[in-house]
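Dear H.,

Thanks for agreeing to be a second pair of eyes. The structure we're designing against is below in token form, covering all 78 positions.
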């Protein structure tokens, strides 16, 4: 007689996943500490702070190779 009682798999706690970030954040996508401050050229994505940007060879957003950077500051108008 195979009267197997399945008990596993029923004690899973609802896992609270990190809320997907849909709102644009001013923080660098790499270090999440500093403000984004350079845009990748040629794709134009503004994603990282200066030190993180210079350490990358490809855009963290679209993976395109970075040919140059343009300094940009969110707080430029403050
Ligand atoms: Zn950074
Ligand atoms: Zn890009």
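And this is the sequence the design step returned. I haven't edited it by hand at all.
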């Amino acid at each position: 007689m195979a009267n197997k009682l399945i008990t596993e798999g029923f004690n899973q706690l609802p896992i609270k996943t990190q809320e997907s970030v849909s709102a644009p954040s001013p923080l660098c996508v790499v270090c999440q500490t500093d403000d984004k401050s350079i845009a990748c050229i040629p794709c134009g994505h503004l994603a990282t702070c200066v030190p993180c940007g210079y350490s990358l060879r490809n855009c963290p957003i679209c993976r395109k190779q970075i040919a140059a950077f343009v300094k940009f500051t969110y707080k430029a108008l403050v």
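Two observations from my side: Residues 24-77 form a domain with the Herpes Virus-1 fold (CATH 3.30.40.10). The longest helix spans residues 50-55.

Warmly,
E.
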